[in-house]
Design goal:
three-stranded mixed beta sheet; single chain; alpha/beta; zinc; Glucose Oxidase, domain 1; binds zinc ion; 13 helices; 14 strands; 24% strand; Aminopeptidase; eleven-stranded mixed beta sheet
Length: 463
């Protein structure tokens, strides 16, 4: 593009650039450098994460641990010196897992490492035993004749691919969301899928699943990748494979909890705010270190790093969303509660993709806001973060309801997700999977982003 500009146009262009006042003053950029240096040396984010995952542990919405996490978050915000700490109600359907087990029965007895998907109904107390019918994809199941799976257990063998941006998750997760419904429509008495996973370990990956009114509810589970390989190999050998699946779980109806919010007030326009955060809930199998203790910890720490150096013009608000895993419930309630003043949000980003390094920065904002975005990108570059100029950021799952309610300027601080789906939603999502140095880089990136968006010469707006 630049090569096409005439010499005269280039001269005018550079004159214009020279004449324009810089968007951020040298003093503001000094603050940025100090925030970055402090954050890169501080253990705060990892300390917060250690506290949450050790003292609370798993945080399934509605459980005693969930309530403990709310108290923990309030206390942590207060001890970090946030100006305002408050709760907003969140409503969600509660579900509990009590026990789960499985075996391959024929052609030979073998253990089956499985986990129930969220919302699954129970099997009878001795489980269900049936022949397995295999499909490679959800689409293949949907296209199959009615009654093809009558009295059988449907198995979907689809394997997600590994990539830095987690693009394999979307196609794989459809079989988790609606596989049980499609299987029941074909007459199945149970649903089993290869875990949405990139790992070689023998942990099964749980995750949200949904039933549909008018379609019979059947028990729904995921099996670990090595077990999935085993089942597929046996069926491909032409063997009749039957399994026993035993799930004891319960839906408890409507429950409630809280989004926990902490804010450092801005000096000039405190009603306007940068929203950063993560979700406080987690699945019950691990301790939710990667998903999403890391997002909780790094957003709390980064707001503190900003406030320690310079209070920006606008507020920095950390929102810890409730019940994300069961269906973005806390985020839906936040969007509804703040519908009337969504234009106070000058930037929003949620970290919910583990704790590996941030490698790219992307916006989704109005055209007139882009010069500020480019200045932020320049200050993130020393952290090895590249700028993606497509201006199509998604902002994180809990921002979906907010984006639906209004025009919000959202940002992605893209994390390296190459290994994320090795641990995601498993018993293996524990603190030891988090590298403190990488978490520091995340917190530094969020701190720089939050400070610059909150202290920018004019408010960033959405598209
Ligand atoms: Zn998450």
């Amino acid at each position: 593009m630049k090569k096409l500009l005439s010499f005269a146009a280039m001269a005018t262009f550079s004159l214009h650039l020279n004449a324009a006042a810089p968007l951020f003053t040298p003093q503001q950029l000094e603050h940025v450098a100090t925030i970055r240096d402090n954050a890169m040396q501080s253990p705060l984010a990892f300390d917060i994460l250690t506290s949450l995952t050790t003292e609370v542990g798993p945080r399934l919405p509605g459980t005693a641990n969930d309530k403990l996490a709310v108290k923990w978050a309030q206390d942590k915000f207060a001890s970090l010196g946030f100006d305002k700490v408050w709760l907003e109600p969140a409503n969600f359907p509660e579900w509990r897992r009590y026990s789960e087990s499985g075996s391959i029965l024929t052609p030979s007895l073998q253990p089956l490492h499985l986990t129930a998907l969220g919302n699954s109904i129970s099997t009878p107390k001795d489980g269900i035993t049936a022949q397995v019918i295999k499909f490679e994809t959800l689409e293949e199941l949907i296209a199959a004749p009615d009654d093809i799976a009558k009295d059988k257990i449907v198995y979907i063998n689809y394997r997600m691919n590994r990539d830095i941006d987690g693009n394999g998750y979307g196609p794989a997760v459809q079989a988790r969301n609606s596989g049980a419904v499609e299987a029941a429509k074909k007459g199945a008495i149970g649903y089993m899928m290869r875990s949405v996973s990139t790992s070689h370990h023998r942990f099964a990956h749980t995750g949200g699943s949904h039933y549909k009114d008018g379609v019979t509810k059947i028990p729904t589970v995921a099996i670990a990748n090595p077990d999935a390989d085993q089942v597929a190999r046996l069926i491909d050998l032409g063997k009749t494979v039957s399994v026993n699946i035993n799930v004891q779980a319960e839906s408890l109806g409507q429950g409630s909890g809280f989004n926990v919010i902490g804010q450092f007030n801005g000096t000039d326009s405190p009603e306007q705010y940068v929203l950063i955060g993560g979700h406080l809930d987690s699945w019950d199998l691990g301790t939710g270190a990667l998903d999403d203790g890391a997002g909780v910890a790094l957003s709390m720490a980064s707001a503190k790093f900003v406030s320690d150096v310079k209070r920006p013009k606008r507020s920095v608000r950390v929102v810890l969303f409730a019940a994300e895993e069961l269906g973005l419930w806390g985020a839906k309630d936040y969007a509804a509660a703040h519908k009337a003043d969504l234009n106070n949000i000058v930037a929003a980003a949620e970290s919910d993709f583990g704790a590996d390094v941030v490698y790219a920065f992307e916006s989704n904002v109005s055209a007139q806001s882009l010069p500020i975005v480019r200045e932020i990108a320049k200050q993130l570059a020393p952290l090895n973060i590249e700028y993606i100029g497509k201006n199509k950021a998604g902002g994180g799952p809990d921002l979906i309801p907010l984006k639906g309610a209004g025009s919000i300027p959202v940002f992605d601080l893209h994390q390296d997700g190459t290994d994320y789906f090795d641990y995601h939603h498993t018993a293996d999502d524990t603190l030891d999977k988090v590298d403190p140095a990488k978490l520091q880089q995340n917190a530094a990136a969020y701190a720089i982003f939050a400070f610059m968006a909150a202290d920018a010469p004019f408010a960033i707006t959405g598209k």
